Amino acid sequence: GQLRAAVVTDGTLGPATALQGRFEIGQNLGTRVGPNLFHSFRSFNLGRNESATFTGDADLARVISRVTGGKTSHIDGLLRSKVGRADFYFINPAGIVFGPDAQIDVPASLYLSTATELRFGDGGVFSATHPDAGSLSVQAPVSFGFLQDRRGEIRFDGDGDWDEAGNWQGTSVELSPGSSLDLVAQDVAIAQTRLASPQGVVTVATAQQGEVPLHEHSPEAPQGSVTISQAYLDSSGAPAGKISLATDQLVVRDSWVYADGYGDVNSVDGGVDVRAHDVQLDHARLTANALQGSGQAGNITLQVEGTTRLVNGAQLSTATGPDANAAAGDIVIDSGELSVDSQNSGLPTAIFSDTYNAGAAGDITIRADQVELANNGLIASSAYVGSSGDGGSIDIHTDKMLIDNSRLNTADPNNQGAPGGVIAATYGAGKAGDIAVHTGTLKIQGQVQAYTGIFTNALENTSGQTGHIAIQADDWVRLWNYGWIRSENYATLDHPEQIQPQSIAIRSPLLYLNEGAAISTIAAGNTAAGDIDLDIGEVLGLNLSTISTRSVGADGGNIRVSAPVTLLSDGFIQANSDGLGGQGGRVDVQTQALIPSQSILLLNQHVSFNPGILLQQNNAANVIQSAAPQGLSGTVSISTPQLDISGSISHLSARRFDARQLFADYCRVGLGSSLQQFGAGALPRRAGEALVPAVDE
Predict the structure, then answer these.
(1) Would you place residue 678 in the very low, low, confident or very high pLDDT band (cuts 50, 70, 90)?
(2) Which of 47, 434, 632, 660 could join 468 via S-S bond, C-beta 3.0 to 4.6 A?
């Protein structure tokens, strides 16, 4: 109607008048002070097919408007400024709503807010609630001031969407390159709208009281909410710009937030920066990729006091693309809790930094009270096929970490073969990155058809250089039901001796492996397998599980175990080589008590680990082995003052033990194998002697 489609000045800075239709708002309707042109409106609404065009002197730096009447501004027409290269400011404490046909055409930066006042560097204040107070300044605005506990919102109710070719169609606002787009209100909702400032800064922030500096977050986590739904925020360019989101509750659903880089200029301050109390990303992408040229893109940074959730195909990504030669940006997350859960959607739900070219992938750093990766939730850094850059490192600091694929729907083809957990991999000429986890507790829980755990991989036709896995737990580590910690190297190289096999190192008071769980290094090409180093403060327990190193075409890796108590309940510890001329690795077990269940302990017997066999109780055994059937077997060293073969601990069944099986010379599996004896009370010198602990003289 006519009332809603009215623009009415309030007479405080120029003549009072009403405008509608297609009209100009000339400089004579406001007041110029130095480089600033001030306007004041009682109401400001634009209906469909209406337009308001601001005009003024070409040398003006800023056009600054306020709405004082206490009514929300509804804009569904064209809002335009033809004032030189002037920035455009518009504040209305009652709220600003843009409809599906809204258009914004300004020559420079755009600042929209529901603040009660605009503050200047010289102390000047331009108030929308007390228009007769304050003063007009010649300086640039420095912050938005929120003095009242109001619920004014900025809302974009668009009708845009991506077409089949991936192009945006519908409601769109795009500023000139290098401009700033600020939306600051008590609440902000952006739906089906594209907001773009190429090479510029897009800031969406909320506050109820206090001050919000322009271009920056408020000093403390602000109140309010930001909801981005089926929308597209973009500051990409050459160089990449920046997107800042600062609010209490952030929800990004079915949307893209891009700060990608093109060209040869580094992005100094670009990337995606999020500060909130809680964040939910639902089928949303936040990216800061280097897509073309040698210019480096920015980083992704999340500072979240409460919970960060990525669900249903949500992704955080920094990458260097096939047409770029720059390094990818880093990802840094500080959060109370972090959850990455595909929710059985079959969509990759991940935090990743990758390289597809000569630039290195970025590093991923996560600091959180709790980290949960569920249903193929993933944290990964990879060097892909055709790349020569190295993968990035992954560093996780948390009190509690859970990797859980126990509820994954493995019948869904989209979930089959897809990994869940933490992965550092190379599919190219570069190296895989390292993985470091420092946690209070770590639990990895999978299932037979799920690829679940912490992995470093080097595939065929790659550099063959896996990363190092280091895990330090203050309380315990538990691997359950095919939960794995694994290093896999499938590369076949011309000079495999130049590769330094990387190890798996775990430090924890307690380490339990159960039901098909495994800690392993595998070299399936012609490189040597990596080592495994376990420093366990109290108890190491294996039930239907394995700790193993294995090389198909070279030497097996070494295994060192240090644990006061080692429990083997159908457990395998193996350092084998299947290659012609390969040497088995060294197995060194330092323990105060080695306790095998089932009254069976096979030392260096030629037994291959097969979970399908191991899980059949009738065929089960406990095996400590270093074998090379086609080469030189390694050594098994057991240093223990007590070897308990009764199998009766914790009410385990104890069958009669046949000492002839234990003390037969099973070490002669390959050339040069040996079983070394350390410590009083370990293996007796003759099979007929009793196994007794040492007694101090």
Answers:
(1) very low
(2) 434
Q: How far is CA 434 from the centre of its chain?
A: 15
Chain segment 227-267, per-residue pLDDT in tens:
999 999 999 999 999 999 999 999 999 999 999 998 888 88
Give bridge partners of residue 426 from the DSSP assignment. 383, 458
Instruction: Say whether 27 sits in a helix, a strand or coil.
Output: helix
Partners of 504 in the β-ladder: 469, 532
φ, ψ dihedrals at 611, nearest 5°: -55, -35
Task: Let me know: does 566 contact 538? Beta carbons within 8 Å.
Answer: no
List residues bridging with 257 in a β-sheet: 233, 286
pLDDT value for 653: 29
Tell which residue, 325, 195, 187, has the closest CA to residue 255: 195
Task: Please say whether the beta carbons of 338 and 299 come within 8 A.
Answer: no
User: Which amino acid, 508?
Assistant: S
Find the length of the chain. 697
d(CA 424, CA 433): 5
Q: What is the DSSP letter of 553?
A: S
CA angle 60, 63, 68 (to 5 degrees): 150
> 429 in the Ramachandran plot: left (φ > 0), alpha (ψ -120 to 50) or beta?
alpha
Cα–Cα distance between 14 and 106 in angstroms, integer?
22
Residue 606 has what DSSP assignment?
-
Cβ atoms of 531 and 537 within 8 Å: the answer is: no
What is d(CA 440, CA 200) in angstroms, rounded to the nearest whole number? Answer: 42
DSSP-assigned letter for residue 237? B
Instruction: Compute the chain's Rg from CA coordinates.
Output: 33
Where b means 16+ CB within 10 Å and e means fewer, 72-106 reads bbbbbbbbbbebeebbbbbbbbbbbbbbbbbbbbb
SS3 percent helix, strand, coil of the chain, rounded to 5, is: 5, 50, 45
Residue 302 is classified by DSSP as E
Residues 389, 420 contacting (CB under 8 angstroms):
no
CB-CB contact of 590 with 537 (8 Å): no
The stretches of 475-634 forming alpha helices (DSSP H) are 611-614
Per-residue confidence (pLDDT) for residue 620, from 0 to 100? 55
Rounded (5°) CA angle 284-225-204: 70
Which backbone phi and psi does 614 adopt, to 5 degrees? -60, -35
Q: What is the pLDDT of residues 402-438, one digit of tens each?
A: 999 988 888 888 777 778 999 999 999 889 999 999 9
pLDDT in tens, 84-108: 999 999 999 999 999 999 999 999 9
Distance of CA 271 to the CA centre of its chain: 15
Give the integer Cα–Cα distance in Å for 491 and 224. 52
d(CA 504, CA 520): 8
Q: Are strands 242-246 and 201-206 parallel, antiparallel or unpaired?
A: parallel
Q: How far apart (Å, rounded) are the C-alpha atoms in residues 289 and 167?
A: 19
The answer to whether the beta carbons of residues 197 and 175 sit under 8 Å apart is yes
Residues 246, 269: Cα–Cα separation, whole Å: 17
The amino acid at 312 = N
DSSP designation for 77:
S
The two three-digit tokens of residue 65, written as one number: 């408007």
Q: Give me the amino acid identity at 189.
A: A
Residue 588 CA to residue 678 CA, distance in Å, equals 11
* Pairwise CA distance, residues 278 & 505, whole Å: 34
**CA 174 to CA 169: how far, in whole Å?**
13
Going by C-alpha positions, the residue among 231, 105, 211 that lies closest to residue 159 is: 231
